[in-house]
Amino acid sequence: MSSGRELFARDGPEAQMDEIAARAGVGVGTVYRHFPTKEALLTAMVRDRFQQFAEIAALAEETADPREALETVMRRSAEAVEGDAGFQLAMMDSDQLEWEGIEEQKALLADVVTRIIRRAVDAGAVRDDFTFEDFGMVMCGITSTMYYKPGGADWRRHLAIIVGGLRPPVGDVGQSV
Asked: 35 near 21, Cβ under 8 Å?
């Protein structure tokens, strides 16, 4: 699958299965036996990442400080895909994914991250309207920064700004942000 990741990173949706097979040192028939379409290969690569994210989240959940647990899952998940331009591109073009092939891993991740978020909210360490859906949106934004690097942007700086914005508002200023 690493050959597929490299080619998807380089060529995006134009990556060709025969070139993926050649890079992997196998026949194209072997690739098609395991992955009947490019979308199936891409889905398998994303499924592996979501499984990894769930494992990262499970470890972060053991962190005593609720805010640190949330920051840890965000940072380590981002670090896991820092060099994976194929995954980064897949997340930005997620309409092409066969999400039904990833549902189990996404649900597991959602369960753990939702518990982490709830604990941070309950502790007053994170704004009370932050949800798992927001988590996904934030992480896709970080991934986009990694891939496109607009203006030479640094994804770690992007994440630091987001994490700072997760703090609960101080006092009632009369309007929501």
From this structure: no
pLDDT tens for the chain, 177 residues long, are 566 667 666 666 677 777 777 777 777 777 677 777 777 777 788 888 999 999 999 999 999 999 999 999 999 999 999 988 878 877 776 666 666 778 899 999 999 999 999 999 999 999 999 999 999 999 999 999 998 887 778 999 999 999 999 999 876 444 444
Q: For residues 55 and 117, what is the distance between their CA atoms, to the nearest angstrom?
A: 16
Question: What secondary structure letter does DSSP report for 27?
Answer: -
In the numeric block, which tokens belong to residue 1?
């699958």
Answer for the pair 17, 36: CB distance below 8 angstroms, yes or no.
no
Farthest-apart Cα atoms in the chain, separation: 64
